[in-house]
């Protein structure tokens, strides 16, 4: 585990789960210490712990110890390995589960002989990117119809604690039209981890899935490594094998909280609500790994960002919104069409999807917006017109058939159901759509009657 020619350094001080060592300036053949490098901390009784360089101040190096500093004294030694954290990569990692240090935790075969690659590298050269133009089908109507997910998109699910965002994320991973799914769990309780794994296994997609899981009881620093682990593997599959990779991360607020704890232990000056001033840069560094490669596959990132107190101005969702290309807003068990946005949907709607997609999307949202206004009039006991009653009926059907996150259907079936729903509530002349589309897709009276039944 330790290479002989690397120098040892004695510990200067221990603060929380961090320790500071002084690296001799005359290192001879020793490898220079760099930010993010790994080190082995050896205690008085020979016990070894893995640590990572998190700060360098001239010859003083601060290390975050993965397993904590309990049992480590200032007589311990640090041995620098000369490389950052690495992750195994080959086809053999498919269907496997790793912790935040890249160690298998599923009881499967040993992978120590597999090739390993550094994590946390730079984002891809913009010259190697192409304009996103391919849809990722999820069979979730509120995504496929109204806020289409596009390959290479980076987009979060904004929600609050208690909402079923983890089961929803698992279902997208199962149903999404992707070659490989890479899952990154951050501070998960065991029940959530087990639910994800069981869902992937029961759906028969575990063989094309790689899981990196940091549980709530695991070392905090490993939580900071999980996104980089997942994204490094995703990049390898996309670049070297041309795979279309979907990366699922939950929950990025737990990731930001871990960064805050590490920053406090370093005695760094906090910024907004105790988070470090580089929160935006740290989040962007991960999200910008999303890419559609000109000479390979693609990496798409779908994450969960919980909003403490349902506060959209909280630093984590606030910064995330500036980085990502939209968001899905999940609350009360439904995807809210007015809080959700996909900035790349215009690249595919009507171009790689059916010709009526754009108009049916806009018409459905227009009527639902008016239905909410009619519901307010009804709640305040105002008189309702016949048109208001049409809108109220439409609003009920829209929430039942499309907004519920448990609804699952292919895009074409969802578009047909949109037309059937409109036919149940409105006359063709009320739609204000292109007549050619109405003539082609609006159900005939017999079809509308069958849909109503």
In short:
The protein is an alpha/beta fold. It has helices spanning 141-144, 165-175, 190-202, 220-241, 252-265, 279-287, 315-323, 357-379, 386-403, 411-425, 435-441, 445-452, and strands at residues 8-15, 18-22, 37-42, 48-57, 60-65, 77-84, 86-88, 96-98, 116-118, 154-159, 180-188, 209-215, 244-250, 291-292, 298-306, 326-331, 334-335, 341-342.
Name a few traits of the molecule:
alpha/beta; Thrombin, subunit H; Rossmann fold; 3 domains; ten-stranded mixed β-sheet; six-stranded antiparallel β-barrel; 18 strands; elongated
Describe this entry's structure for a reader.
The chain has helices at 141-144, 165-175, 190-202, 220-241, 252-265, 279-287, 315-323, 357-379, 386-403, 411-425, 435-441, 445-452; strands at 8-15, 18-22, 37-42, 48-57, 60-65, 77-84, 86-88, 96-98, 116-118, 154-159, 180-188, 209-215, 244-250, 291-292, 298-306, 326-331, 334-335, 341-342. With 453 residues, it is of the alpha/beta class. The chain has three domains: 8-84, Thrombin, subunit H, CATH 2.40.10; 87-345, 3-Layer(aba) Sandwich (Rossmann fold); 357-452. α10 (411-425) crosses α12 (445-452). Residues 1-5 have low confidence and may be disordered.
List the helices and strands and how they pair.
Elements: E1 8-15, E2 18-22, E3 37-42, E4 48-57, E5 60-65, E6 77-84, E7 86-88, E8 96-98, E9 116-118, H1 141-144, E10 154-159, H2 165-175, E11 180-188, H3 190-202, E12 209-215, H4 220-241, E13 244-250, H5 252-265, H6 279-287, E14 291-292, E15 298-306, H7 315-323, E16 326-331, E17 334-335, E18 341-342, H8 357-379, H9 386-403, H10 411-425, H11 435-441, H12 445-452
Parallel strand pairs: 8-12, 10-15, 10-16, 11-12, 11-13, 13-15
Antiparallel strand pairs: 1-2, 1-6, 2-5, 3-4, 3-6, 4-5, 7-9, 14-15, 16-17, 16-18
